[in-house]
Specification:
Blueprint lengths: L1 H26 L8 E8 L1 E8 L10 E6 L15 E18 L2 E12 L10 E14 L4 E15 L6 E13 L3
Antiparallel strand pairs: 1-2, 1-8, 2-3, 3-4, 4-5, 5-6, 6-7, 7-8
């Protein structure tokens, strides 16, 4: 009898604790924020639009509309130059292991953009990658970033696994957090 008197309160308390845990995990949890930014390219790469969810290391790679300047004329068909291309974008900081600034490795920026036929799981017809942007302004408080790419190589892949060509590009990238 004594064991029943102890077992009932213990089971009751356990049931209450499990119920509270479930309610708090489902009902009170915050929804993850969708980071909305205004991303602007000006120069040899042109574009300006709001982007949601750009650009964690593992994706997603949001849709973006980009226009290429005449520096790409020798590589792409003329129909691809000065025309907006709806594709996907990725950008992030990378550490250039060959350059040092005051004993530290230099943080630079990279941009990748691809477009053409297919979907997210298919390697597109056209792919460009630019590495070497210098971070001019970065503010964690306002969540803004300005990067300049001055005469840096842009690797280009056209329907291939190896780079097809390289051109030299100059442009400015600005990222600004949008507040919902």
């Amino acid at each position: 009898m004594k064991s029943k008197n102890i077992l009932v309160p213990i089971l009751s308390i356990t049931l209450i604790l499990v119920s509270l845990t479930l309610v708090s995990s489902f009902g009170l949890s915050k929804r993850p924020k969708q980071n909305s930014e205004w991303i602007i390219f000006s120069g040899d790469l042109e574009g300006s639009q709001e982007v949601v969810g750009c650009c964690p290391n593992a994706g997603p790679n949001p849709e973006y509309t980009m226009t290429l300047s005449e520096v790409f004329f020798d590589v792409f068909p003329s129909s691809e130059i000065n025309e907006p291309h709806v594709g996907h974008i990725f950008m992030n900081v990378f550490i250039n292991l060959s350059e040092h600034v005051r004993g530290k490795r230099k943080a630079m920026y990279m941009v990748k953009f691809w477009w053409g036929e297919g979907d997210d799981n298919y390697f597109y017809d056209y792919f460009i990658e630019v590495r070497g942007g210098d971070i001019i302004e970065s503010s964690k408080k306002t969540k803004s970033l300005t990067v300049t790419f001055d005469e840096v190589p842009c690797k280009i892949w056209i329907d291939d696994d190896a780079p097809t060509a390289t051109v030299t590009v100059s442009f400015t990238l600005t990222r600004e957090q949008m507040y919902l």
